[in-house]
Design a protein that fits this description.
Elements (H helix, E strand, L loop, with lengths): L4 H16 L25 E3 L10 H11 L12 E10 L18 E10 L14 E9 L2 E8 L12 H8 L15 H9 L4 H7 L14 E2 L4 E4 L5 E10 L8 H10 L3 H11 L5 E10 L25 E11 L3 H6 L12 E2 L4 H17 L68 E3 L10 H9 L2 H16 L4 H11 L4 H11 L31 E6 L5 H13 L3 E6 L3 E4 L5 E4 L1 E2 L10 E6 L5 H17 L4 E3 L4 H6 L8 E3 L6 H11 L9
Parallel strand pairs: 13-14, 13-18, 14-17, 18-19, 19-20
Antiparallel strand pairs: 1-12, 2-3, 2-10, 3-4, 4-5, 6-8, 7-8, 7-11, 8-9, 9-10, 15-16
Helix pairs in contact: 2-9, 3-4, 4-12, 5-10, 11-13, 12-13, 14-17
Function: Decomposes hydrogen peroxide into water and oxygen; serves to protect cells from the toxic effects of hydrogen peroxide.
EC number: 1.11.1.6
Keywords: Heme, Hydrogen peroxide, Iron, Metal-binding, Oxidoreductase, Peroxidase
C-alpha cells in the first residue's frame, strides 16, 4: 500500500465509513428498551400502589439497572476508591424489645465487622479529598449470617426512585465525550441533572456543605440513609434509621486545603486510617437508631420512606446502643477491600425492609453488580465475604466455585438425603419477611407525599452557622462557575431561590447570571444536630507540626511537647533535613519530616520553634510559608519564644487561635485548648 498523502486520507476515510454504522445520536429520538420497545415512563418504577413495593415485572427497570450494574469491569461503577479495616461491634444495651437480631440481644456481645469507606463518583485512581459523598459500609459477621449496613456519610440521597440512579451517576461521572472532569461534580451534566430533577435539592445542600470534604474517615458520620424495620419476637415492628456517630466529633477540611492535599498526598484519608490503627489510635463510632412506631407512620409533614428526607433528631432522637471500633488493618487491599461484596439485602432475622423505592431498587442492583464484578455467583466464597457461621444450600457450580459439595442430592424436596438441607422455622431462626399488607393498582407513579423537594433543604440551610453558610455559597460559586452553559447556571440560581433568596442572589452575581426573581420562602425551623458547630471537640489524635532548627531552647520545647502528647496530640518534628537537631542546652531531637516532604495542609496545627540553619533565608522562607497557609486555613498556631521572629515575618496576625509563649503564660495547656477547637472562623485572614 502506498504511503502517499492521498492513500493515507483514503484509509482514514474507509475506517471512518466502517464505523459509521455503529454511531448513534439519541438527540430528538424516542426512548426505547434495547429490544426497541418504546418506553412510556422513565421516571418511576412499577409498584403495587403509589407507596407499595416495586414489582419485578418492571422490565424497563430491570434492563436499565442491569445494564448500569455491568458498565465497569472490574472496578466498581460507584464507590470505586475505597479503603477498609477490620474491627468489632460491641453492644451497650439489649435491643430485644425492638428486634430479634441475635447480635443485638445481650449487652457486651462483640461481633466482628469489616468496614469500607469510599468516594462515590471518582475512579479507583482519584484523590481522597475531592468534594463527594463518602460511602460508609459495614459487614457484621453474626452467628446468624452476614448483615450488611451499606450507607453514606450523608443521611439523604439525590433521588427518590432507584430507576433514576443510572441517570444520576451518568450525570456526575466524567462527561462521555471527553472523559473530563475526574471525581468532580463541577461540570455541566451534573448541574443539568440537578435542575432537571429538583428532588435533589436537599442532597445538593449537603454536597455543597463541609460534610462533603470530611477531614478523614475517623471524623465523619455514617447513615443507613433508608428507612428500615426492626421486628421483635412478637412480630411488632418499628420504622428505623441507622446512625453512626464518631467519638472524635464530625470535622471537615476547608476547600482550598482539600484541593492542596489532593496534590500533596492524594492518599491522605486512607493513610490517616492506616496510620491511626497501626499506632493504636483505634477509630470509634457509636451506633444508634431513630425509631418511629408503625401507628405514627403518617404523623409527619414528610414521608418517612422518602430517601431525600431526614427525620430531624430534635423530633425523633437517636437512641445509642452500641460501639464500633476499627482495630486491625487489612493484610491485602485487593483480597479484602476490593473483593468485599456488600449488599443491603444481606440481613438477619429481626431486620427488614420498607417500601422506600430507592431501597427496593438497591435490593436488586447490588446482588446483580457482584455477578459481573467478582466473576459469577460464588463471590460469597471469597474469604472476606464468607460468613463466620456454617452455610448450607443447594447452589452448585458456576465460576470460581471453591466448595467441594459431596453427595448426590442438590435439590429441595428430596428423599435421598432425608430432605436436607432443611428449611428452618421462625422459632429455629429462619428468616421470615415482615407481613406487611400491600394493595393497590400496578402503576408507574410517585406518591404525592414525595413531592416536597425544598422544605428540608431550607431546614438544612437555616441550621448552618455563619461560616458554614459562607462555605456553602463558596462551594456553589466554584461548582456552578465551572458550568459552561449559562442557561444551566441561571436555572441553578432560579432553583435554589426556593432554599434562600440571599444565597441564590450572591451565587447569581458570582457566576454571571441574572438575579433570581423568586420570593424568599419564610423559614423558622432549624435542627442544631445538622451543624458541625455543635459537634465534639477534642485534641486527641490531632497532628501538630513542630517547625524547628538547631539552637532551640530544649527545656521549653520539650516541656511543651510532653504537654501535647499527654493530651493525646501527635507530634511531628519538621526541619530542613532528616537526622537529628540539637538544642542550645544540648538536647537532641530526631526529625520526622522535612519542609519538602511535608506540607502545612497535612497538619492540624503548628508549633513554631525556629532556630538556626545552614541556609537561614530558605529556613525562614519555609517556616513563614507554613505559617501563612495554616493561618489562612483558620488553624491554631503556637509560637515559642524563639519562634516569634518567624511569626512576625509572616502574614499572620495575633488573634483567635494564635498562642504565643511568654514567661508567665500557661502556654502548653492553652495551646492544647486551641488545638482541640481546630478552626478559628472569626480570624481575619485578609
Amino acid at each position: 500500500m502506498k504511503k502517499s498523502s492521498d492513500g493515507l486520507e483514503h484509509r482514514e476515510n474507509s475506517k471512518d465509513k466502517q464505523l459509521e454504522q455503529y454511531r448513534v445520536n439519541n438527540y430528538g429520538e424516542k426512548m426505547t428498551t434495547n429490544q426497541a420497545l418504546k418506553i412510556s415512563n422513565d421516571e418511576f418504577s412499577l409498584k403495587a400502589g403509589v407507596r407499595g413495593p416495586t414489582l419485578m415485572e418492571d422490565l424497563h427497570l430491570r434492563e436499565k439497572i442491569t445494564h448500569f450494574d455491568h458498565e465497569r469491569i472490574p472496578e466498581r461503577v460507584v464507590h470505586a476508591r475505597g479503603y477498609a479495616a477490620h474491627g468489632e461491634f460491641e453492644l451497650y444495651k439489649s435491643m430485644k424489645d425492638y428486634t430479634k437480631a441475635g447480635f443485638l440481644q445481650v449487652p457486651g456481645t462483640k461481633t466482628p465487622i469489616f468496614t469500607r469507606f469510599s468516594n462515590v463518583a471518582g475512579s479507583k485512581g482519584s484523590a481522597d479529598t475531592v468534594r463527594d459523598v463518602k460511602g460508609f459500609a459495614i459487614k457484621f459477621y453474626t452467628e446468624e449470617g452476614n448483615y450488611d449496613l451499606v450507607g453514606n456519610n450523608m443521611p439523604v440521597f439525590f433521588i427518590q426512585d432507584a430507576i433514576k440512579f443510572p441517570d444520576l451517576i451518568h450525570a456526575v461521572k466524567p462527561e462521555p465525550h471527553n472523559e473530563i472532569p475526574q471525581a468532580s461534580s463541577a461540570h455541566d451534566t451534573f448541574w443539568d441533572f440537578v435542575v432537571s430533577n429538583q428532588e435533589s435539592a436537599h442532597m445538593v445542600m449537603w454536597l455543597m456543605s463541609d460534610r462533603a470534604i470530611a477531614k478523614n474517615f475517623r471524623v465523619m458520620d455514617g447513615f443507613g440513609v433508608h428507612t428500615f424495620r426492626l421486628v421483635n419476637e412478637e412480630g411488632i415492628a418499628h420504622f428505623v434509621k441507622f446512625h453512626w456517630k464518631p467519638k472524635l466529633g464530625v470535622h471537615s477540611l476547608v476547600w482550598d486545603e482539600a484541593q492542596k492535599i489532593s496534590g500533596k498526598d492524594p492518599d491522605f484519608q486512607r493513610r490517616d486510617l492506616w496510620d491511626s490503627i497501626e499506632k493504636g489510635h483505634f477509630p470509634e463510632w457509636e451506633f444508634g437508631v431513630q425509631m418511629i412506631k408503625e401507628k405514627d407512620e403518617f404523623m409527619f409533614d414528610f414521608d418517612i420512606l422518602d430517601a431525600t428526607k431526614i427525620w430531624p433528631e430534635e423530633t425523633v432522637p437517636v437512641q445509642i446502643f452500641g460501639k464500633l471500633t476499627l482495630n486491625k488493618n487489612v493484610d491485602n487491599v485487593f483480597a479484602e477491600t476490593e473483593q468485599v461484596a456488600f449488599h443491603p439485602g444481606n440481613v438477619v432475622p429481626g431486620i427488614d425492609f420498607t417500601n422506600d423505592p430507592l431501597l427496593q431498587g438497591r435490593l436488586f442492583s447490588y446482588l446483580d453488580t457482584q455477578l459481573i464484578r467478582l466473576g459469577g455467583p460464588n463471590f460469597a466464597e471469597i474469604p472476606i465475604n464468607r460468613p463466620v457461621c456454617p452455610f448450607h444450600n443447594n447452589q452448585r457450580d458456576g465460576y470460581s466455585r471453591q466448595r467441594i459439595d459431596v453427595g448426590q442430592v442438590s435439590y429441595h424436596n428430596n428423599t435421598l438425603a432425608n430432605n436436607t438441607p432443611a428449611t428452618s422455622t421462625a422459632a429455629e431462626g429462619g428468616y421470615v419477611h415482615y407481613a406487611e399488607k400491600v394493595e393497590g393498582k400496578v402503576i408507574q407513579a410517585r406518591s404525592e407525599s414525595f413531592k416536597d423537594h425544598f422544605s428540608q433543604a431550607r431546614l438544612f440551610w437555616n441550621s448552618m452557622s455563619g461560616p458554614e453558610k459562607q462555605h456553602i455559597i463558596n462551594a456553589f460559586t466554584f461548582e456552578v462557575g465551572k458550568v459552561n452553559s449559562k442557561d444551566i447556571r441561571q436555572r441553578v440560581v432560579d432553583m435554589f431561590v426556593e432554599v434562600d433568596k440571599e444565597m441564590a442572589t450572591i451565587i447569581a452575581v458570582d457566576v454571571g447570571v441574572n438575579r433570581p426573581s423568586g420570593e424568599q420562602v419564610p423559614v423558622t425551623a432549624s435542627s442544631p444536630a445538622l451543624s458541625q458547630e455543635n459537634t465534639i471537640y477534642t485534641p486527641q489524635t490531632l497532628t501538630v507540626g513542630v517547625l524547628v532548627g538547631n539552637g532551640f531552647k530544649g527545656t521549653e520545647v520539650l516541656a511543651t511537647i510532653r504537654t501535647l502528647m499527654n493530651a493525646g496530640v501527635i507530634v511531628k518534628i519538621v526541619s530542613g533535613k532528616l537526622g537529628t537537631i540539637r538544642s542550645s542546652d544540648n538536647y537532641q531531637v530526631a526529625v520526622d519530616e522535612t519542609f519538602l516532604t511535608s506540607a502545612p495542609v497535612l497538619f492540624d496545627a503548628l508549633y513554631i520553634v525556629g532556630g538556626n540553619s545552614e541556609n537561614e533565608a530558605k529556613f525562614e522562607s519555609d517556616i513563614t510559608y507554613f505559617i501563612n497557609e495554616s493561618f489562612k486555613h483558620y488553624k491554631p498556631i503556637g509560637v515559642a519564644t524563639t519562634g516569634q521572629r518567624f511569626f512576625k515575618a509572616s502574614n499572620a496576625k495575633e488573634g483567635p487561635g494564635i498562642v504565643i509563649d511568654s514567661p508567665k503564660s500557661d502556654f502548653g495547656n492553652t495551646f492544647v485548648k486551641a488545638i482541640a477547637k481546630q478552626r478559628f472562623w472569626t480570624r481575619d485572614i485578609y
